[in-house]
Structure formats: structure tokens, C-alpha cells
């Protein structure tokens, strides 16, 4: 069997491949979903304290998950993480899986959460063309704002917001349609 470090649950460390089961599958799939929705950031990567130098697998062993309600002292969240925009049910799932404080749902439970997103629950249309946003804000706009030098926004704008902080993209030549955004947000995952 093949085991990839950085995807091994704390309860699976040192076990032979033949003894790994559903708990390991749920942990690994949850990491992949977290990375897909969070700009490729691994849930056990962030900014380590200057006095520490742990590998990702060591941070997993320590349950040093910095994106939960109680971040560890050894690791702070990445500044480009958009995890704060995730729907509450999805954040709760990740917190349970990665903090190791309680049993989480099955892989099917995670799929049910993602199906709700696919059906539009927890998603909005961003004010910028081509972006799909969570109800709490648009991950693509969040990262674009950071890349443009803006301070980390507390909330990106969605079409449901009454007063956008910036105008939506306007085409430069009104006879041509606006260019498609290269950063399409979550649309490719769910639609």
C-alpha cells in the first residue's frame, strides 16, 4: 500500500496500510477539500513561531490546527487563508477532524455538506463576474485584495450585500464583453 505523509491522521501514524480504515479516509479527504477551498493551503501549514521548526506531519501529530476556534501556540494561520469565509457547518467539520477533540461525521457527512454547497446553500454570486462566493464572502476577491496590497479584508463583497465596498468590474470597451476572470472561485468545483 501507498501512504503519503502530510495526509496521515494522528490515530493512523505507525499503523500498517492494511489496518487503516474510514477514519483515515475521512482525515485525508478532509485535507484535500480544505486545500481545494482554501487556496491550496494545507490545514496544518501556516506561520510557525520563530523558535519552532516542525514538519507538517509533526504538526498533525501535535494536532496543531491553526484555523480552528482554539489555534495552537506553535502555529498561526496563513495570512492568505480564506477559511473564515467557509460556511459554519463546513468549518465545524474541519475543526472536529483536525483538532481531534471529538468524532466527526463520516465521509458521507462531508459529502452532504458539499452537496448543500452545490445546491446553493451557503453560496452567493460575487459582485465580480465569474466568481462564486460563500455567503460570508468571495475567496477569489479575498486573495486578489491581498495580492493588490490591500489589508486583509474582514469580509469580501457578495451580490447579496446592500452596499458594495467597491464597484463591480466594468468593461473597458463597452462594445466587447468583459474578460472572463482567470480566478473563477468555487464554480468549477460545484457547477
The end-to-end distance, rounded to whole angstroms, is 34 Å
Question: What's the SSE pattern?
Answer: HEHEHHEEHH
Shape: globular
> Which structural class should the secondary elements be placed in?
mainly alpha
Report helical residue fraction.
25-40%
The largest sheet is: 2 strands, antiparallel
Percent in strands: 5-15%
Mean pLDDT equals 78
Number of helices: 6
The number of distinct β-strands equals: 4
Strand arrangement within the widest β-sheet reads: 1-2
Rg for CA atoms: 18 Å
Q: Return residue spans where pLDDT drops below 50 for at least 5 consecutive residues.
A: 154-191
- What's the oligomerization state? single chain
Structure described in brief:
With 191 residues, the chain is mainly alpha-helical. It is 31% helix and 5% strand. The chain starts with 21 loop residues before the first helix and ends with a helix.
Could you please describe the fold and organization of this structure?
This protein has 191 residues and is mainly α. It is built from six helices and four strands, in the order αβαβααββαα. The strands form two sheets. It has a two-stranded antiparallel sheet with strand order 1-2. The protein has a two-stranded antiparallel sheet with strand order 3-4. The model is unreliable at 154-191 (pLDDT under 50).
Defining traits:
globular, 31% helix, 191 residues, 6 helices, two-stranded antiparallel sheet, mainly alpha, single chain, 5% strand, disordered C terminus, two-stranded antiparallel ribbon
Secondary-structure blueprint:
Elements: H1 22-37, E1 47-48, H2 56-61, E2 75-76, H3 88-99, H4 107-118, E3 123-125, E4 132-134, H5 139-147, H6 187-190
Antiparallel strand pairs: 1-2, 3-4
Amino acid at each position: 500500500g501507498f501512504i503519503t505523509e502530510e495526509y496521515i491522521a494522528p490515530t493512523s501514524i505507525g499503523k500498517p496500510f492494511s489496518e487503516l480504515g474510514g477514519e483515515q479516509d475521512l482525515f485525508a479527504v478532509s485535507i484535500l477539500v480544505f486545500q481545494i477551498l482554501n487556496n491550496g493551503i494545507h490545514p496544518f501549514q501556516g506561520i510557525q513561531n520563530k523558535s519552532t521548526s516542525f514538519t507538517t506531519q509533526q504538526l498533525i501529530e501535535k494536532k496543531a490546527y491553526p484555523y480552528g476556534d482554539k489555534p495552537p501556540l506553535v502555529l498561526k494561520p496563513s495570512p492568505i487563508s480564506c477559511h473564515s469565509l467557509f460556511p459554519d457547518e463546513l468549518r465545524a467539520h474541519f475543526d472536529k477532524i483536525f483538532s481531534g477533540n471529538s468524532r466527526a461525521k463520516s465521509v458521507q457527512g462531508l459529502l452532504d455538506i458539499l452537496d448543500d454547497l452545490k445546491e446553493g446553500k451557503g453560496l452567493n454570486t460575487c459582485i465580480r463576474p465569474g466568481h462564486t462566493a460563500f455567503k460570508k464572502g468571495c475567496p477569489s476577491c479575498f486573495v486578489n485584495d491581498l495580492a493588490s496590497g490591500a489589508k486583509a479584508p474582514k469580509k469580501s463583497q457578495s451580490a447579496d450585500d446592500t452596499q458594495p465596498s467597491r464597484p463591480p468590474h466594468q468593461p473597458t470597451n463597452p462594445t466587447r464583453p468583459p474578460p472572463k476572470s482567470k480566478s473563477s472561485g468555487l464554480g468549477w468545483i460545484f457547477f
